[in-house]
Design a protein that fits this description.
The chain has 381 residues and is α/β, with parallel strands linked by helices. It has 2 domains: 5-37 and 275-380, Aspartate Aminotransferase, domain 1 (Alpha-Beta Complex); 63-257, Aspartate Aminotransferase, domain 2 (3-Layer(aba) Sandwich). It is built from 16 helices and 13 strands. It has helices spanning 9-14, 16-27, 41-55, 69-81, 92-107, 119-122, 127-130, 148-153, 177-185, 202-205, 209-213, 239-251, 260-273, 277-294, 321-335, 367-380; strands at residues 31-32, 85-89, 111-113, 135-137, 161-164, 191-195, 218-222, 233-237, 302-304, 312-317, 337-338, 344-345, 352-357. It has a 5-stranded mixed sheet with strand order 2-8-7-6-5, sandwiched between helices. Helix 3 crosses helix 13 (260-273) and helix 14 crosses helix 16. The longest helix has 18 residues, at 277-294. Its cofactor is pyridoxal 5'-phosphate. This is Threonine aldolase. Residues 66-303 form the Aromatic amino acid beta-eliminating lyase/threonine aldolase domain. It comes from Kitasatospora indigofera.
């Protein structure tokens, strides 16, 4: 699902030529284990046109400054999460900043509680600090959400506690439902969920989207990561929160004249992917177990977490990222097997990590197929 090159450090470092080579190689593969088949612009437009027919009445006028299809999307998301209202945003980075800023302004407090591995800290150039004048504090540095004891014992004040569900950089890990509710119950400040991948978290947590969202005072969801939309995000909360969020959206430059392509693709993604997510999450456990078994004899190799909490997880191998990228591209080009996406080097020399996304194309892979694919990759190394 994650096809955004900005989220692929290996591709960003390697440069456009490797991006184009990967695009062509994966697009030409007969079978893909991780992610979805890349589409060129013509294919993407054709797919959007076909799917949009079912997603929205195309005989209606386009949106203007957030009405029309954009408003229909906001209402759909609010209903899915059991929220009073929702606000569409062109990017999650903008939505996250504004959510934290609203809570900071309401409480007269410039500190916000984050995880050091969270998206605002790692992938947004700390925009909340540079543009919003906010400061982060960390109730925990462990690769998980903070415990009730850590919340109660923390000696810093803050305006809002942001919890990323799942915590991507830690391996797309989720708490249990009891752990999540205990942490939220221990918190006196407002709670904001960074739910970019909340859609697929319901199965591990064992509760519905409205039940999960009800634990937080505001929730952010993404339309392109899991749902395969063009772009965009939404914030949900009470009506006053959403009204304020829309005012700040305008100030931040997010009140675009027309955003109907992104809104249509988001509606189509909700229709297409939400019913499939359980099959992805279920099959991810099969794929992860097969990968772990196939890599058991490789010193330092690891699949994490096992079993996965969602349909995404990490694979670690004791090779440089550049060597793994080259071997993966050769496997795709020569054998038509697309096993993984881009790799990135870790702090430990010679150890690299990639993220696996089990989506539609992976459903046809058996455990035996996964083993054969890994053996073919290792042979190229």
């Amino acid at each position: 699902m994650d096809v955004n090159e900005n989220d692929d450090p290996a591709a960003a470092v390697a440069g456009p030529s490797v991006q184009e080579r990967r695009f062509a190689a994966l697009r030409g593969c007969e079978r893909l284990l991780s992610g979805t088949r890349p589409q060129n612009l013509r294919e993407r437009l054709a797919a959007l046109t076909a799917e949009a027919e079912q997603a929205h009445d195309l005989d209606r006028r386009p949106d203007f400054y957030g009405d029309g299809v954009v408003r229909a999307l906001e209402e759909r998301v609010a209903a899915l999460l059991g929220a009073a209202d929702a606000a569409f945003f062109p990017t999650g980075t903008m939505a996250q900043q504004i959510a934290m800023r609203i809570w900071a302004d309401r409480r007269g407090e410039r500190n916000v509680a984050l995880h050091p591995l969270s998206h605002p800290e790692r992938h947004e150039r700390r925009a909340y600090a540079t543009l919003g004048g906010l400061h982060s504090v960390w109730p925990t540095t462990e690769p998980r959400i903070p415990t009730p004891e850590e919340i109660r014992g923390f000696d810093e004040s803050y305006a809002v506690l942001t919890l990323e569900l799942p915590l991507r950089e830690a391996g797309f890990v989720l708490p249990t439902w009891d752990e999540l509710t205990a942490t939220v119950s221990a918190e006196d400040a407002p709670v904001h969920f960074d739910g970019a991948r909340l859609w697929e978290s319901t199965f591990h947590l064992g509760h519905s989207l409205p039940e999960i969202a009800a634990l937080a005072d505001s929730v952010y969801v993404s339309f392109y990561k899991t749902l395969g939309g063009v772009s965009g995000a939404a914030l949900t909360g009470d009506r006053e929160f959403v009204r304020t969020a829309k005012a700040w959206r305008h100030r931040y430059g997010g009140q675009l004249f027309q955003q109907w392509p992104a809104a249509l693709s988001a509606l189509a993604g909700l229709d297409r992917e939400l019913p499939r997510l359980e099959s992805y999450v279920t099959h991810a456990k099969v794929v992860a177990a097969a990968l772990a078994e196939a890599l058991a004899a490789v010193p330092g190799a690891r699949v994490f977490p096992e079993p996965p909490h969602t349909h995404q997880f990490q694979v670690w191998l004791p090779y440089p990222a550049r060597a793994l990228d080259e071997a993966g591209l050769r496997l795709a080009e020569e054998s038509g097997l697309g096993l993984f996406g881009g790799w990135r080097d870790s702090a430990l020399p010679g150890l690299a990590m990639t993220e696996v996304t089990v989506a539609g194309p992976a459903l046809e892979w058996t455990a035996k197929d996964v083993t054969a694919g890994v053996e073919a990759l290792l042979a190229l190394l």
